Structures are given as C-alpha cells and as structure tokens.
What we know:
Elements: E1 5-6, E2 13-14, E3 19-24, E4 28-34, E5 41-43, E6 53-54, E7 56-59, E8 65-67, H1 69-72, H2 74-77, E9 82-84, E10 107-108, E11 119-121, E12 124-126, H3 128-147, E13 153-158, H4 164-176, E14 180-186, H5 187-194, E15 205-212, E16 217-225, E17 228-237, H6 242-256, H7 261-266, H8 268-285, E18 290-291, E19 294-295, E20 298-299, E21 302-303, H9 304-328, E22 338-342, H10 349-359, H11 372-384, E23 401-405, E24 409-414, E25 422-428, E26 438-444, E27 454-461, E28 474-480, E29 486-492, E30 498-503, H12 511-523, H13 525-555, H14 561-577, H15 583-613
Helix pairs in contact: 3-4, 5-11, 6-8, 6-9, 13-14, 13-15, 14-15
Bound molecules: adenosine-5'-diphosphate (ADP) and magnesium ion (MG).
Amino acid sequence: xxxxxxxxxxxxxQQEEVIVGIDLGTTNSLVAYIxxxxxxxxAINDLGRGTIVPxxxxxxxxxxxxxxxxxxxxxxTDPANTIYSVKRLLGKSYKDLGEHKDYFGYKIIDDDSEGxxxxxxxxxxxxxxxxxxxxxxxxxxxxxxxxKTPVNxxxxxxxxxxxxxQRQATRDAGKLAGLEVLRIVNEPxxxxxxxxxxxxxxxxxxxxxxxxxxxxxxxxILSLHQGIFEVLSTHGDTxxxxxxxxxxxxxxxxxxxxxxxxTLNEDKNLQQELRLKAEEAKKALSQQQIYTxxxxxxxxxxxxxxxxxxxxxxxxxxxxxxxxxxxxxxxKPEQIDAVIMVGGSTRVPMVYExxxxxxxxxxxxxxxxxxxxxxxxxxxxxxxxGNRKDILLLDVTPLTLGIETMGGLMDSIIPxxxxxxxxxxxxxxxxxxxxxxxxxxxxxxxRDLVKENRKLAEFDLKGIPAxxxxxxxxxxxxxxxADGILKVEAxxxxxxxxxxxxxxxxxxxxxxQVEQMLMDSITHAREDVSARMVIEARTTAEQMLYQVERFxxxxxxxxxxxxxxxxxxxxxxxxxxxxxGDKDQxxxxxxxxxxxxxxxxxxxxxxxxKQAMAGKKIE
Length: 619
Ligand code: ADP
Ligand code: MG
C-alpha cells in the first residue's frame, strides 16, 4: 500500500514508506533500512542507544513491559519475570525442548502436550509469539522514532534451519507488532546480500556462512544460481556461543582466585558482575593481548594466550560442524567461493583465523558482524519494494493459503509472498477414536480464524480405516503452479486413501480486496491472536480433561481417596473455567491439574513394571 508520509526532519513528502529489515536474534536484535540518499543499508541507532537491542523482555510489578538493555538488568534481580532467548521457543512444543528445559530462568508451562509452549510470568501466560512481538514492537518504535516516519512493513530474518512452524510463528509475531511481513529471509542469505553477493542475477557462487552468536552456532552452505539462494546444508549447535566463552573465563578466575563455587552460587550480584566482567575481558582481548581488572577483591586478569587455550574446545566444535556441513553438501573447502563471518563472537581473532584456515581462504569480515544480517535484510526489503530496477522480481502469491484446523483456526501452508511455483505440506491426524472421514477446508487470507478468510474449496477424505485418535497420518499437500493454480491433495499414509481438488485462488479477487484483507489482518492482529490463544488453551484443556478422566477410570485403585477427591475437584475447576474465554484462567487450571496429577502416571508405571517383572499379566 503506498501511503504518503511527511519526513519531519526535511519536510519532504515521501511517496513510498520505508520497509525495514529486522534481525530478530536469540541474544540481540537490530533493525536496518536503506538510507534514501546514500542508498546504503544502515543499522538504526535511535537516541544514540546503539544499534543493538538485547532480545530480553521484562514485565514489571505494575504491568509494564520493558525491552532491551533496561530489561537485561532484571535478569538477575527478577529472573521469573524477565524473558530471554525466546527465539529458542518459537514454534516449539514443550517436548521439543528435550534436555534443555533447565536452561531457562523463567517458567515454561509443562502441560506435556504436543501444543506450543507457553511462558508464565506473574499471573499471565504468554506465547513465544507475543514475546517476540514485544521485541519487534520495540524495534519498530525505534525505527519510527529515528526515521520520523511510520514503519508498517518489514523483512524479518530467521536461521536457515527454521522449520515451517517456526517461520510461521515469526510472521505472526511481526503481524502482532503491527508489521506487514513481506518476506521471511534466511539469515545466511541476508548476510550474503550485505556483502553484495546475490545482487547480480548472473552470479553463480557457493558460499559458506559461519555465524557464532551469543548462545548459538550455525554454519550454512548456500548455492547461488540465477538470483536464487539454495540452502545446500546447515549444521551447528543451538547451545554454543559467546556465553560459553564468558563461562570459561569465569571458571578460570574462580580457579585462579581459589573461590568456592558454592558461595558464588548464592551471591547473585557477584555472579552477574563476574559475568559482565568476563564479557568485557573477552571483548577487550579481541583487540589487545592482556586484560586486568577487579571485582571486589577478586583479581580478574587474563591474557589472550590463556583465553585462546580456554576456548579452543569451543572453536574446535564449530569446525567439526563445518566439516559435517561440507560433507552433507558434498563439497570440498576449495569449492567454496566466499566465506562470510556473522555474529559478535566472530570478532575473536582466533575464531576468524581458524575458520579462514579451515576453508583455505580469508573469510569476509569487513562488515560489522553484529549488524550484517540486519543490513542484508534491509537490502532484501529494498529489492521487494521495487526500488532496485536492476533486479527481477519473481511472481509471488499475494495471500496466505491454508486449511482449517481444530476450533476453526487457520493453519497456513503456503505463506503470502512465497515465490511461485511452490509446494508445501503438513501432516495432520484425527481427533476422535475411530474417525473415518476428514474434512479438508481450504482458505485464503491472513486472519487467524477461518471465518474471516476466503473459502476456496472443501472436500472429504473418506475411507480412513478406523483407528484410535492420533494414529492416522494424513499428509495435506499444496501445489501452486506457475499459472497460479492450486492443487490440494490429502493422503492417509497408512491406508493410501487419497483425494484432491484444484482451484484458482486469484479468481475473482481484485487488488483492492487483497489490500483490504491485508489491512484487516494488521488492524485485527491483537484480537486474532487472543482468539487463537483462547482456542488453543481450550483445546489443551479438553485434551487434559479427557486424559485425566480416562486415567481415573482405569487406575483409581492405585490412588488414595484423598488424591481422587483432589483430582476431581481440580477437574471440576477446569471444566468450570473452560467456557469463560479467559485463557490465563484456563491455563492456570490446566497447570494446577497437571502439577497435581503428574506424579500418578509415574507411580502407575512403576506398579505396572513391578507386576510385569513378577510375571503378572498387565493390560
Ligand atoms: P545472536 O545472533 O545470538 O543474537 P550476536 O551475533 O549479537 O548474537 O552475538 C553476541 C555475542 O557476541 C555475545 O556473546 C557477545 O559477547 C559477543 N561479542 C560481541 N562483541 C565481541 C567482541 N568484540 N569480541 C568477542 N565477542 C564479542
Ligand atoms: Mg544472529
């Protein structure tokens, strides 16, 4: 949508509003744009606060939300209400977190369902999407403030390995922050663009992007062909980065000063001070050979030589990943045309040297490694806005295509602005025991509830063999060809039954209707997300009720009367709040029931095992 904006600093009328590029990072986030005069990408530094916004959200006692450096200060003083690393939770279920559940200092709801994780702060429950939206909102406000113009559109980057639901979650976060997300771009692709690779469509290159951030490491091997980046392979470690270097330094100081780790554990302030000191030392050693300082009476000195010895295992791990990614892409180091350094931790000279040595050529590090992803995102935004006439814009689908799921929610399969032709799919299952038919309703639009979107087609997948709920595997595939014709097919994998339909999504749809639909999705973003969360909370609650009720029926002999009574009371409480439409109340009741009943399952399991050992027959 072209809007007229007035640049308050120059008084000039701007026909085209800016589209910003956003790096939504695990540790830090940034926003960048193309400077209208120099045509160069610039990271936005609002009010001289620096370009980097720590990806931390703090909820104050009186209900305010703070983001960035100020929020970071609460990490030690109020960890329960200070959320960091939310990117790790985007699009994930509690089960996905696996062994890393203890990494987080705040409460993640462990209702053990397959549903997406929720975070509890005070009496409120937040989805990672809402929390990411808070960070994006802060970036958007900073951009608006610095550029003195409304910012409504953005390109946001994600790691190359992000799956469909993580990408969708990132889009949703953008929408909730009032941004129309023109495209989700891979971080390594953005970094390449920032170095000018991929701008000329005739260029053919193979590129390695090495990204070592605060808590994550990614290596991506890309191939550039006819202006399109293809990810050949990715590897990495989602729990490895600069924080580990800081910890190595702290441990060294503890040893050198003969400190007792236990006393340190109790003194949160000292801990935090040492952590900040260690980071300061690490950064200083990227420039100099020796660092000396003190925290209280503790000597905090370290040489670069010692530091390199400490971090050698970390660097070696990243090189192992590089070797793995190269193997997966079936490439030898000499076949890589360019190596690109991304992430603050690549400033460590040893990291730069080791990586350059592995690939047998000097890596690109002339751009600021903290900013390079955001800068590339800004270039991508500029390309999409049509400001670069030299670049071919590919055909894209203007509205999201998806199907209806539980509770009338829209599940998007092909996001808007995807290049066509394209293909995408997802697997579904049944919700009722013995279900033999499944209705597939195809919709177009950006709203969370299908009733607000445009219905394109509907069909029944019939003849699914009767199985317990959750057993059938139904693949739904969307194939959108170059002429804009969409084929939707559904296949039940166990039995092979299939059904398909063809539609032309653009048929009878005018440009102004598309614009209206986009506008509506932004204006209604907040209510849509709330509605979605209530429906998801209800679905979780219903599953929980069903499970606990069945459990009681089967296993009440292993519970005391008191326990049964308690469970029934909690079941009743949950049933009572279910119609309320208050997601916090519902989730709280789910949480209470879950916490009260979770020990039962283990007890019953142990009894069953004992009985099995004793040779008794079990059900
Ligand atoms: P992410 O992509 O995870 O959000 P960044 O790319 O912003 O993270 O990297 C943050 C990390 O970079 C932190 O661990 C920080 O200490 C480290 N870092 C920043 N500057 C330097 C420097 N000069 N030398 C070494 N490490 C640095
Ligand atoms: Mg990063």
